[in-house]
Write a structure and sequence with these properties.
The structure holds 2 protein chains of 2 kinds. By secondary structure, chain A is of the alpha/beta class. Chain A has helices at 16-25, 27-40, 96-103, 119-127, 134-141, 164-178, 183-198, 204-226, 264-284, 304-309, 318-332, 354-369, 384-387, 395-406, 422-430, 432-439; strands spanning 3-6, 50-53, 72-77, 88-90, 114-117, 146-154, 237-244, 249-257, 287-295, 299-302, 338-346, 370-378, 410-415. Among the domains of chain A are: 159-238, no CATH class; 245-439, von Willebrand factor, type A domain (Rossmann fold, 3-Layer(aba) Sandwich), CATH 3.40.50. Chain A contains 16 helices and 13 strands. In chain B, helix 1 crosses helix 4 (110-130) and helix 11 (247-254) runs antiparallel to helix 12. In chain B, the strands form 3 sheets. Chain B has a 4-stranded mixed sheet with strand order 6-7-8-9. A 3-stranded mixed sheet of chain B has the order 1-3-2. Chain B is globular. Chain B has 22 helices and 9 strands. In chain B, strand 2 and strand 3 (100-105) form a beta hairpin. The chains are: A alpha/beta, B alpha/beta. Strand 4 (88-90) of chain A pairs antiparallel with strand 5 (415-420) of chain B, so a sheet runs across the interface.
C-alpha cells in the first residue's frame, strides 16, 4: 500500500532564499541594468517590475571541461541514409558550433535571457547609492494604503455586513405593497373568535359570523406564510470601497536647463533626482501628472523623450521656465485642486540680471502655489569640495538662497554625486506628517 | 454509474482523485510484482504543483537542499523556459531514497498518473534498489537524513561565519564536483548521525579550550628537518595516498588552511556528488528500464480490461513522444535519446530471448532463445552500467534498425570521416564507440593530485591525463584552479600530460593566473 501525500498546500517559494542569494551575488551588474533602465525609461515607470538580462559576471560556475575544438572524438549518430565507411563530410564553417552540436551538448544561449525583478528588488537597487535613510526607503517602498470607505449598499455580502435599517425598510415596503396581514389584525380576529366561541347558546347569525371569521383567519395565515416577514430580496449589505489615502492629485513640474553645459552626467543625476521625487509623490497621491519644462533662453513644455534626449542650443534664461510653469499652472492645474511640486535641475548658469527676476517670480507667484520646491545645482566633482558648504557660487545660487531663507518649503542643494541628492528632499520626508495634512487640502 | 458497468475499469475519465490513484497503484503493483518480478522500496507518492516542480528542478531534484545562489540562478532559467512555453515540465521526479519518493504533477490526467506510477514508482524504484552501482555507492535509507543534516549545518555555518564565507567555500567545492567522486574504490560509508555529533562535540571542545599560548611554544626544529630529509618523494606520496582522483576528498583531509566547518562543507558537497554519480552512469539503463516497465504494465492493464481505449491511446501517445528519436540530420536532433535507446534495447533483449535469429545466436550465445526474458532483463538491470550494458547487449539488428554510424571528428582536420556504418565490419566498432561515449570516466577530464611537499613549499601538483588530445577549456580551467588555490591556500599547478606518450603538453600554475 503506497502512502500518498498532498504537497500542493505546502509553503510556496521554497527557493526564495536562493533567489536572494543570487541577486546579492549579481548585485553590481543588476544595479547597472536598473540604472540603465531608469536612465532610458520614463520617470513614472521606475516604480514597477523590470525585466533584466541575466547577469554573466560573477555568476559563472566553472569546472574542468573539455574544450570543444580540440582532440579526436567519435560520435555515434542514428539515421544513416547514404553514407559508406570512408566517406568524408566537410565540417560546417562554424567549426566549433558544428562539432558541439554533434557532441550533443545543447548549450543555452545567455544573450537574450531575461528575468523579472519585483518592484521591491528594483527599488532596493535604485536606492543603493542614493544613501537614503532606512526609514525613508521603507516609506517609499510601502504600497499606497487603502482604507475601506462606506459606499452605499450592496445586495451581496457577508452576514456581519447586513445593514439592518435598510433591510427592514425594504421588508416593510414589500409587506405593505403585497398586503401582508399584520399581527394585530390576526390577534383581533382570534380574540373575536374566542369571544364568540365562549357564547353558550350561539344563534345562527353568530355561527355564520364565526365561520366567516375562521375563513378570514385561515386566509390571513396563508397570506402570512406566503409573504414572509423578511425575504432574501429585502436584505442589504453595507458596501465598502477601498479608498487610497490620501485621496488627492498632484502635479510635478520638472524644470531643467538643457543648454550645452548640461552633459550626460548632469542629465543622469537630474533624472535620478526627478525619479526620487516622483516615487515620493506616487506614495502620497493617487494621481500624479508630470510636466516637463526645459529651457535655454526660452522655455517650452515638452514630452519626456525630448526633455532628456534632444539637445538645443542657446543661452540660459531661467526665469522663462518659471514663467512657463506659472502659465501651465494657471491653465491646467488650479492650485485649489492640485498639489503642486516642482523640481528644478541646473548647472547654475544664468543670464546676467535674470536671477533677480527669478527671485521675484518665485517669491510673489510660484512659492505661494507650491507644496514644495526642490532645486539642485549640479556641479563638477572637482568643485564639490570648494563649494561644499559655502554660500559662494553662481548668481542663481545666491539669489535662490534668499528664497530659501524666506520659504521653508523651498529646498536647495549642490550635488556632484548621487549620494548627495537626498538632502534636498530631507525636509520633504521629515515633514511627512505635516504634508499629509497639506496633501489632503485639495480634496 | 460505476456500479452499472460490470467492468474492471480502474477509471473512466481523465480527472484523478486519491481513490483512483490508490486503486490504480494496486493494480499496477500486482502486475509489477507478480508478472515482472520487480523488487522495490516502499513508495511514497507526493502530489505537487508546477511551482513546486520548478523548485525541485533547481535543487537538483532533491526534496531538501542547502541554499546557494546557483540554485536560484537555475530556478530563474527553468522558470523562464517554462513560462515562455519553451519547455514543458517533467511529469514526475523520483528520488533514490528509502522509502522511494515519487513526485506526481497535479496537472497530469489520470491516465498519465498511471503511466508515471508504473514508470517511476516501479521502474526507477526497482532499478535503484537492485542495480549494483546504486547498491554499492548510495545509501538510499540515509540520504534524506543526510540532506537534512547538510541543510541545517550549512545554515548554521552561515549564521556563525557569514554568508560570504560559506558561499566562497561552496563555490569552490561546486567547481570541483566532477572531480569529487571515488571512481575506483568504495567510499567510506556515510557516517551516522551519532558519529557526526561526536565529531562536532570534539571540535567544539577544542575550540572552547583553545589557548593561544600553545602556538608560541618553540618547535623542535632539528628533528623536523631530519625527518624531512628522510622522506623521499615516493614515501611522501605513499603517506598521502597519492595520486588521488578525488580532489575534494584530498583537500578536505589535507588542506592546511581550512577550518573544521569548511572541511565539513567540502565533505557535504563530495557526498552529494558521490550520491549522484551512479545516476550519471546509468541514464540509458535507468530510463530504459522505467520506460519498458511502464509500457509493459500499461499494455497488461489494457489486456486485462482495466483501462479503456481512450486512456490507452493517451498512454501510447505520451509513450511515443518519450521514445521519439529524430535522425541526425533532423533539425530536432540534439543527441541520442536515452529513453529511446534504453527502451529499444530492452525490447530487443526480449526478442533475442524469445525469438532469436541465427545472427543473434552467434552474437549472444548465452541468452539467445533462453525463453525467459524476464530473468534476462532483471539480470541485466542488476549487473550493468550504461557502458557495459551497451557493450554487452547492443545487437546488430538494433544497429541496423537505428541505422547507426560512427563519425570520426578530428579537430585538426577540416572534415568528418564516416568511420563505420551498420555492416558486418562496423557492428562491433559502433557498439564499442557508443559504449565508450557513455563511459563517464572517458568523457570527463581525468585530473588527479600527484604530488605535494607538505613540509616544503606545499606546492600542490595536479596532473591532467590528456586522452585523444582533448584539452581543457582555458577560461574555466583557470577559474577552477583559482578555486582550488583558495581551498589549498598555497600555490597550485596543473600539468597536462599525454595519456599515451607521457609527453608534457602544458603546465599552468595558479601564480600565472591574475584576475
Amino acid at each position: 500500500m503506497p502512502s500518498f501525500i498532498d504537497r500542493r498546500l505546502n509553503p510556496q517559494d521554497k527557493s526564495l532564499g536562493n533567489r536572494q542569494r543570487f541577486l546579492k551575488r549579481a548585485r553590481g551588474e543588476l544595479k547597472r541594468s536598473i540604472k540603465e533602465k531608469i536612465r532610458t525609461g520614463k520617470i513614472a515607470d521606475a516604480d514597477a517590475e523590470h525585466a533584466v538580462p541575466m547577469p554573466a559576471r560573477g555568476t559563472g560556475e566553472p569546472a574542468f571541461q573539455n574544450a570543444p575544438g580540440t582532440g579526436r572524438r567519435d560520435h555515434v549518430l542514428p539515421g544513416n541514409k547514404e553514407y559508406q565507411a570512408g566517406d568524408r563530410i566537410p565540417k560546417p564553417s562554424g567549426g566549433a558550433g558544428g562539432s558541439g552540436k554533434a557532441a550533443g551538448d545543447s548549450q543555452e544561449t545567455e544573450d537574450d535571457f531575461r528575468f523579472v525583478l519585483s518592484r521591491e528588488e528594483v527599488l532596493d537597487l535604485f536606492f543603493e547609492d542614493l544613501e537614503l535613510p532606512d526609514m525613508v526607503k521603507l516609506n517609499l517602498k510601502e504600497v499606497v494604503a487603502f482604507k475601506p470607505r462606506r459606499a452605499g449598499f450592496a445586495k451581496t455580502g457577508t452576514p456581519t455586513g447586513i445593514n439592518v435599517g435598510r433591510t427592514m425598510r425594504n421588508s416593510y415596503g414589500r409587506r405593505i405593497a403585497l398586503g401582508r396581514p399584520k399581527q394585530e389584525e390576526v390577534d383581533a380576529i382570534m380574540a373575536e373568535i374566542a369571544t364568540l366561541e365562549a357564547e353558550t347558546k350561539p344563534v345562527a347569525a353568530t355561527l355564520q359570523r364565526l365561520a366567516g371569521l375562521r375563513a378570514e383567519l385561515e386566509h390571513f395565515e396563508r397570506r402570512r406564510r406566503l409573504i414572509p416577514y423578511i425575504d432574501p430580496i429585502d436584505i442589504r449589505f453595507n458596501r465598502f470601497d477601498p479608498q487610497p489615502l490620501p485621496n488627492a492629485n498632484a502635479v510635478m513640474f520638472c524644470l531643467m536647463d538643457v543648454s550645452g553645459s548640461m552633459g550626460e552626467r548632469e542629465k543622469d543625476l537630474a533624472k535620478r533626482f526627478f525619479v526620487l521625487l516622483h516615487l515620493f509623490l506616487k506614495r502620497r497621491y493617487e494621481r500624479i501628472d508630470i510636466v516637463f519644462i526645459r529651457h535655454t533662453h526660452e522655455a517650452r513644455e515638452v514630452d519626456e523623450e525630448t526633455f532628456f534626449y534632444s539637445t538645443q542650443s542657446g543661452g540660459t534664461v531661467v526665469s522663462t521656465a518659471l514663467e512657463e510653469m506659472q502659465r501651465i499652472v494657471e491653465e491646467r492645474y488650479p492650485s485649489k485642486d492640485w498639489n503642486i511640486y516642482a523640481a528644478q535641475a541646473s548647472d547654475g548658469d544664468n543670464f546676467a540680471n535674470d536671477s533677480e527676476r527669478c527671485v521675484t517670480l518665485l517669491d510673489k507667484t510660484i512659492m505661494p502655489l507650491c507644496q514644495y520646491y526642490a532645486y539642485i545645482e549640479i556641479i563638477d566633482e572637482r568643485e564639490s569640495h570648494i563649494f561644499g558648504s559655502t554660500d559662494n557660487g553662481t548668481s542663481l545660487w545666491r539669489s535662490y538662497r534668499m528664497v530659501g531663507n524666506k520659504w521653508p518649503n523651498f529646498q536647495m542643494t549642490r550635488i556632484a554625486r548621487p549620494s548627495e541628492i537626498y538632502p534636498v528632499f530631507h525636509e520633504l520626508f521629515s515633514r511627512d506628517s505635516n504634508l499629509r495634512k497639506l496633501g489632503t487640502k485639495a480634496r | 454509474m460505476d456500479a452499472a458497468i460490470p467492468s474492471r475499469l480502474l477509471f473512466t475519465d481523465s480527472d484523478w482523485d486519491f481513490a483512483k490513484l490508490s486503486r490504480t497503484y494496486e493494480a499496477i503493483e500486482e502486475i509489477a510484482v507478480d508478472d515482472l518480478g520487480l523488487d522495490t522500496y516502499p513508495n511514497q507518492l507526493e502530489i505537487i504543483s508546477a511551482e513546486q516542480m520548478l523548485d525541485a528542478y533547481s535543487s537538483v531534484g532533491m526534496p531538501l537542499m542547502y541554499r546557494h545562489w546557483s540554485f536560484g540562478k537555475h530556478f530563474l532559467y527553468e522558470a523562464q523556459l517554462y513560462r515562455k512555453g519553451l519547455r514543458g515540465l517533467a511529469y514526475e521526479i523520483v528520488i533514490n531514497s528509502n522509502p522511494c519518493i515519487v513526485y506526481l504533477m497535479e496537472s497530469n490526467t489520470m491516465a498519465l498518473q498511471a503511466v508515471v506510477t508504473a514508470h517511476a514508482a516501479f521502474g526507477h524504484n526497482h532499478f535503484f534498489k537492485n542495480n549494483y552501482l546504486f547498491r554499492q555507492w548510495t545509501d538510499a535509507g540515509a540520504i534524506l537524513d543526510y540532506l537534512e543534516f547538510a541543510k541545517s549545518y550549512i545554515a548554521r555555518c552561515e549564521e556563525r561565519h557569514g554568508l560570504e564565507a560559506v558561499e566562497a567555500v561552496l563555490d569552490a567545492a561546486h567547481a570541483l564536483m566532477d572531480q569529487a567522486v571515488f571512481r575506483y574504490r568504495r567510499p567510506p560509508r556515510l557516517s551516522s548521525e551519532k558519529e557526526r555529533e561526536g565529531l562536532r562535540e570534539k571540535l567544539e571542545y577544542e575550540e572552547r579550550t583553545y589557548n593561544d599560548l600553545w602556538r608560541t611554544l618553540p618547535t623542535p626544529k632539528n628533528e623536523e628537518e631530519a625527518e624531512e630529509a628522510d622522506h623521499g618523494a615516493a614515501e611522501r606520496k605513499k603517506k598521502l595516498n597519492l595520486p588521488e582522483e578525488n580532489l575534494l576528498y584530498f583537500l578536505e583531509k589535507n588542506s592546511l588552511v581550512l577550518e573544521p566547518w569548511q572541511r565539513e562543507i567540502l565533505r557535504i558537497v563530495r557526498v552529494i556528488a558521490q550520491y549522484f554519480y551512479p545516476q550519471r552512469q546509468t541514464q540509458v539503463m535507468n530510463e530504459g528500464c522505467a520506460t519498458f516497465v511502464h509500457y509493459t504494465i500499461m499494455n497488461a492493464l489494457y489486456d486485462k480490461g482495466m483501462i479503456n481505449e481512450g486512456a490507452m491511446l493517451e498512454v501510447l501517445q505520451n509513450h511515443s513522444n518519450v521514445v521519439f528519436q529524430p535522425s541526425f540530420d533532423d533539425p530536432r536532433f540534439s543527441r541520442i535519446n536515452p529513453y529511446a535507446l534504453g527502451f529499444d534495447m530492452m525490447r530487443d533483449i526480449c526478442r533475442i530471448a524469445t525469438d532469436p535469429t541465427d545472427e543473434d545466436r552467434d552474437w549472444f550465445p548465452d541468452i539467445a532463445g533462453n525463453g525467459d526474458w524476464r530473468a534476462t532483463l532483471l539480470d541485466a538491470w542488476a549487473n550493468h552500467r550504461d557502458e557495459s550494458f551497451i557493450l554487452q547487449y547492443l545487437s546488430p539488428a538494433l544497429i541496423r534498425k537505428w541505422r547507426m554510424f560512427v563519425l570520426a571528428d578530428n579537430a585538426s582536420e577540416s572534415h568528418y570521416e564516416v568511420a563505420s556504418i551498420h555492416n558486418e565490419r562496423g557492428y562491433s566498432k559502433i557498439r564499442s564507440a557508443l559504449a565508450r561515449s557513455y563511459d563517464i570516466g572517458m568523457s570527463r577530464p581525468d585530473i588527479q593530485i600527484v604530488d605535494v611537499d607538505l613540509l616544503g613549499d606545499r606546492h600542490l601538483r595536479l596532473e591532467h591525463k590528456v586522452k585523444d588530445g582533448l584539452l581543457l577549456d582555458e577560461a574555466t580551467r583557470d577559474q577552477t584552479l583559482r578555486h582550488i588555490r583558495s581551498l589549498w591556500g598555497y600555490a597550485v599547478s596543473l600539468a597536462g600530460v599525454d595519456a599515451e606518450t607521457g609527453a608534457m603538453l602544458y603546465e599552468r600554475s595558479s601564480n600565472q593566473i591574475t584576475d
